[in-house]
Amino acid sequence: MKRIVVFLFFLFVLVSCDSPAPLEYYKRCVLNTVYVQHYGVTEILDILGKPPLKYNESRRNFDTVNYQQVVKDKIQYEQELLKEVEKLKVTTDAKNMIDASKEVLNIAVKGEQDFYLQLAKMKDDKTDAAAIQSSAFRLLENPEKDFQRKMDLLWGYGKMYADANGIDLSLEKKK
């Protein structure tokens, strides 16, 4: 009998370790998308308005790169975030949040591949700033609106998931 209880305990531990806790679901689906929440015209113009730098781990310093590389690094990071969301086991209470997170990240990655890279190339080719700005508005106006609708939906699903799983989203410190 004792062996059965020990076996069941280890089985329970293994099964519970198989899927992340609700807070981990929330972090991967909602909090990680904070990185992409400024997707659109303002973000790309901000990126193109700063010097194109990349952190060099070995030298612990920044290297100058081109703007296309800055955008490619951003895309790569967001694809990693998407893979983390895709690894999550879909549960009944997390399904909508997971799906919304995937949509948000896919819109961001696709828009950056299609439009950010094009605008970064214009900047690297020393195109006039007014032409870049005009192109940014023309290329990103509709994708940005779609993205914001999906982001709002994700935040709503995230709030419902947090409430259902007892995740405290308040910023107040507990006494």
Features:
175 residues, 6 helices, globular, 2 strands, 69% helix, mainly alpha, two-stranded antiparallel ribbon
The termini sit apart by 44 Å
Main β-sheet description:
2 strands, antiparallel
Q: What characteristic shape results from the CA principal axes?
A: globular
Spatial ordering of strands, largest sheet: 1-2
**Class by alpha and beta content:** mainly alpha
Helical segment tally? 6
Task: Please report which band the strand proportion falls in: under 5%, 5-15%, 15-25%, 25-35%, 35-45% or over 45%.
Answer: under 5%
Mean pLDDT: 88
The number of strands is: 2
- Secondary-structure element series: HHHEEHHH
Enumerate the spans where pLDDT stays under 50 for 5 or more consecutive residues: 5-17
C-alpha-based Rg, rounded? 21 Å
Give the domain tally. 1
Helical residues, percent? 55-70%
